[in-house]
Amino acid sequence: MAEIVRMPKLSDTMSEGVVAKWHKKVGDKVTSGELLADIETDKATMEFESFQSGVLLYIGVEQGKTAPVDSILAILGKEGEDVKALIEEDKKKSIVNSPQSIVKEPVSEVKKEIVEQKTAEPPTSNLQPPTSNFQPPTSESQDGRIKASPLAKKLAKEKGIDLSRLQGSGDAGRVVKRDVFDVNLSAYAPRAAADEKESYTEVDVSQMRKTIAKRLAESKFTAPHFYLTIELDMDHAVAARTAINNVAPVKISFNDMIIKAAAVALKEHPKVNASWRGDKIRYNNHVHIGVAVAVEDGLLVPVVRFADGKTLSQISTEVKTLAEKAQTKKLQPAEWEGNTFTISNLGMFGIEEFTAIINPPDACIMAVGEVKQTPVVKNAQVTSGNVMKVTLSCDHRVVDGATGSKFLQTFKFLLENPVVLLGRGEI
Fold it and tell me: Strand 289-291 vs strand 341-345: parallel, antiparallel, or unpaired?
């Protein structure tokens, strides 16, 4: 008997999927465990294997098209088996279960009324079309000055109207307020040049962008955000990074040092390494750092797990690998789930300071700006120094101002004293 293969839910945030590629066509034999299609979710493109065996009788979603989770993806069965009844039965169930079916009849009545109104004869009117008050310039005095009231001049300037083109209705042809108000601006406006054409391009919203919009809107309007900004002296960090890269097996970035420092600080401040769970607050003993990665369709947040226990070289290698997977849409669910804290770094784009929206379920996200050389005061003297600003966005339901500030103080101390940070693990 024919069986329906439904659009799978491949991530916790997935509500619909795109068939990126079919590996089988109608009439092909499919064995259980064999690759059937590539499904693009909101975060990655994943291979989907068939759980059934049989002949591919029907494809419900064309390649490149979108369909909601649990809709018909394909139908497998015996060769030559009729699947029309199966498809119709599924459509009926979908209509019955759809909330739109409740308002179907009233909507049709409204549409009918609208159509009737459109086809009805328009009412006749005795109103005459407005006439333009543009006349040859008679409002000028003999000495060439335009006779107009101060208010008329002000209104004409705001509207971009040439008073010399108006016929004044005041004394001796003086232009007054009502003359300016009566101007037909559409007739007065200059014609656009032939090459000045309005144009735009519209593209379908990707699955990733839909999810970003939904999750961040929920976060922004549900979690009461507040922000803490602190400036760091990065001179020692700059020197330490240079020294490390002379001996480290892989090149270390400032972002790797930031991840390590944040992870160590979170172990000392577990109330920041937390999340809101409705009637509970979860304080995590493990530290999983989400690292925001910009991709073509938006943003992905792969996770560096147990970051506090990893060396800078391990963190660097892992972040590079995860970023490459994110760019090629090859991240797996285990690589983007489970974050307890998130870091968003725009320093490489020259951004000095910004605020980020909390990435659920985290209670905090840290926005990192660029390491910038700037004049600073040291030992009562102005000198050149490297500074960096970070802003911590906090969910006030979980983290208070003092709690977030203490975390930032520890984070600042670790980055400003990288010897202490490196003393906690090998390079």
Answer: parallel
Distances in Å between the Cα of 82 and the Cα atoms of 24, 76, 246 are 19, 11, 69
Residue 75 to residues 8, 46, 226, Cα–Cα distance (Å)? 14, 20, 51
In this prediction, residue 129 carries a pLDDT of: 46
Residue of 75, 76, 74 lying closest to 63 (CA atoms): 74
CA-closest candidate to residue 353, choices 368, 373, 335: 368
Q: Count CB-CB contacts under 10 A for residue 104.
A: 10
Cα(350)–Cα(108) distance, integer angstroms? 55
Contacts 24+ apart (CB under 8 A), 34-38: 36/5, 36/74, 37/73, 37/74
Q: According to CATH, what is the number of the domain 207-422?
A: 3.30.559.10
The shares of helix, strand and coil residues in the chain, as percent rounded to the nearest 5, are 35, 25, 40
Q: Which of 148-152, 232-236, 251-255, 324-328 has the lowest mean pLDDT?
A: 148-152
Predicted pLDDT of residue 148 = 81
Catalytic residues: 396
DSSP letters, 185-206, are: HHHHSPPPPTT--------PPP
Determine the length of the chain. Answer: 427
CB atoms within 10 A of CB 387: 18
| Angstrom distance (rounded) from CA 290 to CA 348 | 18
Class of domain 133-183: few secondary structures
pLDDT tens string 397-411: 999 999 999 999 999
Residue 290 predicted with pLDDT over 50? yes
**Upper half-sphere CA count for residue 208 (Cβ side, 13 Å):** 17
DSSP string, 80-137: T---HHHHHHHHHHHHHH-GGGGGHHHHHHHHHHHHHHHHSPPPP--PPPPPP-B-S-
* Residue ranges of the chain that CATH labels 3.30.559.10: 207-422
